[in-house]
Amino acid sequence: MKPLEGVTVLDFSQLLAGPSTALRLADLGAHVIKVEQPSGDICRTMYTSNLVIDEDSSLFHVINRDKDGITIDLKSEKGKKDLIPLLKMADVMILNFRPGVSKRLGIDWESVKKVNDKLIYGEISGYSQDGPLKDKPGQDLLVQAISGMCMSTGERDKLPTPVGLSVADMLAGQHLAQGILAALISRERTNKGSLVQVSMLESIIDLQFEGFTTFLNDGHIVPQRSAVSNANFYTNAPYGIYKTKDWYITIAIVAIPLLGELIGCKELEKYTDPTTWSTKRDEIKAILRDFLVSNTTAHWLEILQAHDIWCSNIYTWDMLIEEEQFKSLDMIQEIELQNKEKMSMLVCPIRIDGEHFKGSKPSPKIGQDNDKYFKREN
Q1: Residue pLDDT, tens place only, 213-229
Q2: What sections of the chain are H helices per DSSP?
Q3: Which residues of 144-156 are buried (b: 16+ CB within 10 A; e: fewer)?
Q4: Rounded to whole angstroms, how far apart are CA atoms 305 and 311?
């Protein structure tokens, strides 16, 4: 039995952040009903790689598996009437509309708790419900830019660099899932629902807590990216990724003289004062960069790993899936889609009592379960 069996979730959200919350709850056993407008979630046509699978985007399938699917026109009187029984039966409701939209539709927290005061109301926004940016598009790249994250990635003299994934969306989705789980536990004590709110901006700022805390307590000095092989703008040399004769290597934390001795780089052995590993970080990294191209990644890994130095090869996804470590994780599952084709996707990374939860249902077609939830008039 999965831990959230018996919990019913209404997922009104679109795109990525909100649906990822509902997906995680579904992975853990919740019964999730995806509620779309009659035209469908716009994510159905958001193709990340021009890959169309069973008439929808690959992203839609991945983020909406294990959900029932219904349609409601929330602007119509019939839609509002159809919604009432669903609100009464639900434990959780998830939305990611812009501030003010839910109120206009009559499904804001104050309205729905009058119907079901035990409901957990989970809401994701781009920049929170207040402030001058509240009505701006909560798009992942824009949120990364505003959060300061792009100025921590890439080398100093190069363009600020975003993370190449929808990290603000996904992180906000997981934070909302955490908040909903806490609210469900709270309801066991209070018998009352809760309003749980998360913003993408707050989530991605929180992701930077390590460096941000240093900034807050260090006279608000803005840290500078390393000009050579930047990987963390507070961490000493040699922390970074370097080109070798045939590929790349990452080296994390090691005493510079020891590193020089192991790889045979005499220039590095003179940096015996640990303070120089920070104050002369770029100088040291430049020496290392120029030296490591003299031999292959496998050569350097053999030397360094033999002495338990923190280092690694750099993997592409096709390399990763061939590794025994990846295979041991059992992270790939196959879902049979509505058209009976099979689609490979990742599984929930959470294990409970040794059980690795896998999906069973494909993403829904638009309104496929309307007859299951609504009484239709002839």
Answers
A1: 999 999 999 888 888 98
A2: 17-27, 58-63, 77-89, 101-105, 109-115, 140-147, 167-190, 200-207, 209-216, 256-263, 266-269, 276-279, 281-292, 297-306, 317-320, 324-329, 370-373
A3: bebbbbbbbbebe
A4: 7
The yes-or-no answer on residue 54 being catalytic is: no
233 vs 105 pLDDT, higher one: 105
Mean pLDDT over the full length of the chain: 93
Q: Within 10 A of 29 (CB to CB), how many other CB atoms are there?
A: 16
Mean pLDDT of 236-254: 96
Instruction: Give the residue among 266, 245, 267, 264 at the shortest CA–CA distance from 303.
Output: 264
Strand partners, 311: 251
pLDDT higher than threshold 90 for residue 142: yes
SS3 215: helix
Among the listed residues 338, 363, 242, the one whose alpha carbon sits nearest the alpha carbon of residue 291:
242
Q: Region 330-352: what's the mean pLDDT?
A: 92
Chain segment 295-334, per-residue pLDDT in tens: 999 999 999 999 999 999 999 999 999 999 999 999 999 9
Candidates 82, 169, 273, 318; catalytic one:
169
Distances (CA, A) of 16 to 49, 73, 166, 315: 16, 21, 8, 26
Nearest to 197 by CA among 96, 309, 56: 96
From residue 78, how far is each of 74, 84, 194, 365, 373 by CA, in Å? 8, 10, 27, 21, 14
Binned at pLDDT 50, 70 and 90, residue 376 comes out as low
* DSSP one-letter string for 81-139: HHHHHHHHH-SEEEE-PPTTHHHHHT-SHHHHHHH-TT-EEEEEESS-SSSTTTTS---
Q: What is the pTM of this model?
A: 0.92
